[in-house]
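Researcher: We are triaging several targets before committing to wet-lab work. For this one, the compound of interest is zinc ion. I'm pasting the protein sequence and the ligand SMILES. What I need is the predicted three-dimensional arrangement of the protein with the ligand bound, expressed as structure tokens, so it can go straight into our comparison scripts without reformatting.
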Amino acid sequence: MFTKEFIEKQRDIIKNVSPLPWHACSCGKCGMISGEHDHIATAIRGDWGDDYPDIRRIGGSIEGKFETFMNQITYGHIPEETGNVNAQYIEQACNNYPEALDEIERLRGALKDIYLLPFGQNVRYADQIITSIQKKAEKALNEVTK
Ligand SMILES: [Zn+2]
């Protein structure tokens, strides 16, 4: 799926989005995701569906009045906590996507280099790369669990 063309297309899209990084609001109540100057999105929490304007009678049936209100054809419900985690996931996925594309290309290049090396030498090189990736992963894990 992550062909050279697909990655180029992703990079073109990233060039035109609101500048990264994006931040999920830390209040845990609003699900808002924003950039430095832009409101990017709001993760849905609670009922979701098609919202539409509607009219209802208020007061008595003789001297009653009507008021407009927003109604909804509800299709589903997202618990508040899940909605807040969804906002954090969108933040993390979007902020780290460019680096993930870089990593895919870097590893693809490394695999090509290994493939082109004579047998024996390529095995040692592959071991070095695997060790390097393990060290990076351990370092990242240590930073997350601090
Ligand atoms: Zn908030």
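Researcher: Any quick observations?
Model: Helices lie at 4-16, 80-116, 121-145.
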